[in-house]
Amino acid sequence: MSQNRRVVITGMGALTPVGNTVSAFWESIAAGKSGIGTVTAFDVSAYDCKIAGEIKGFEPNAFFKNPKDARRADRYAQLAMAATKEAVAHSGLMAEGVALDRERVGVIVGSGIGGLKSIEDQHSNLIAKGPGRISPFMIPMMISNMASGLIAIEYGFQGPNFAVVTACATSAQSVGEGWRLIKDDDVDVIIAGGSEAAVLPLGLGGFGSMKALSTRNDDPTRASRPWDKDRDGFVLGEGAGIVVLEELEHAKKRGAVIYGEVTGYGTTCDAYHMTSPDSGGAARAIKMALKKAGLNPDQIDYINAHGTSTGLGDVSETRAVKAVFGDQTKVPVSSTKSMTGHLLGAAGAVELIACVKAIEHGLIPPTINLDQPDEECTLDYVPHTAREAKLTRAMSNSFGFGGHNATLIVQKFA
């Protein structure tokens, strides 16, 4: 790995339950605004959990060359394409006059679940009408690599192209593996991130049957409450987050605006349990990211936590942070999932964007709904309202079912 190849962020795109652009997303989380409400996409009367973080007012046709292309893409791929369009436009990568070697541009956009809506729809066709009525587009619509493939087709990017599928660590690992490819001089640019669209009958029902979801149905905006004593599970969300990663000299040569530098990435596995986390694996990922960045723990100014609002997960992450930063650490930690809900495979990239914006604005987004911290959760979680702070470096944690852990470090470019 060529250590002198620095990796910077030159573009960002996001669709979330609190805003369909990066600026709208940031304004909402800075203001402590929740995007959680009663599900509107289908009848939830029979479900224990009736709430989720839905994207509002999304029209996929605007992001595809023709309406047929949009119809032949699952919702998760539609969201990924929309976030990519914002990120690429934001980066100026495709602007007139930019000399771009498209063989040196790759795409790593993953999804924890993939095209769940396509599976649901076509299974209904199978049961009601027989196998002859299954759509010939079902397979390419449902597979988790298709968003990555469609993005490459849209722009003609011919570099490495694959999809990370590691549950809720997906898009953080996508960014990290893109960082590696640029550092290794395999590419100059990577479009990286993730997308998820599982607010569906099968998605809500499946997570609900695990007893993983909050059932605070009568008070949805207060349902996602990381580290709070009265938390009763996470809130399912949908969305997409995309960043344009670029080798520094490549970015400078074309006069790109640089929004931050990715300096560290750590990834490990708990090798412990399918769904229950182990703090040791998370702590090792954090340590690895710090080592790659050449930093000590006291040089991190803010941690955007995985912070899902689950009983075991919140305690485990708190222990992991303490294991690395010390029991008495004062590092501010917050969970933007308290506002967006859990975007699953899209969460890591969206939360990395939150870190970039926090550094830019000198403002730590809050953990809303944290009224009475769990007695085992004793870090500084920035409760209720955003906090002004001078920020140079931020860390983002993402942990997924299967024991997958990913930590990213981003800093102000200098």
What is the C-alpha radius of gyration, as a whole number of Å? 20 Å
Distance between the termini: 22 Å
The poorly predicted ranges are none
- Provide the CATH superfamily: Thiolase/Chalcone synthase
SSE layout and pairings?
Layout: E1 7-15, H1 22-30, E2 36-38, E3 51-53, H2 67-71, H3 75-91, E4 105-110, H4 116-129, H5 138-142, H6 146-155, E5 161-162, H7 170-183, E6 189-196, H8 201-209, E7 239-247, H9 248-253, E8 260-269, H10 279-293, E9 302-304, H11 311-325, E10 333-334, H12 337-340, H13 347-361, E11 363-364, E12 387-388, E13 393-400, E14 404-411
Parallel strand pairs: 4-5, 4-6, 9-10, 9-13
Antiparallel strand pairs: 1-7, 1-8, 2-3, 6-7, 8-14, 11-12, 13-14
Account of the protein in words:
The chain is α/β, with parallel strands linked by helices. The protein contains 13 helices and 14 strands. Helix 3 (75-91) packs across helix 6 (146-155) and helix 7 packs across helix 13. The radius of gyration is 20 Å and the shape is globular. The two termini are 22 Å apart.
In short:
The protein is of the alpha/beta class. The chain has one domain (1-401): Thiolase/Chalcone synthase (Peroxisomal Thiolase, Chain A, domain 1, 3-Layer(aba) Sandwich), CATH 3.40.47. The chain is 33% helix and 18% strand.
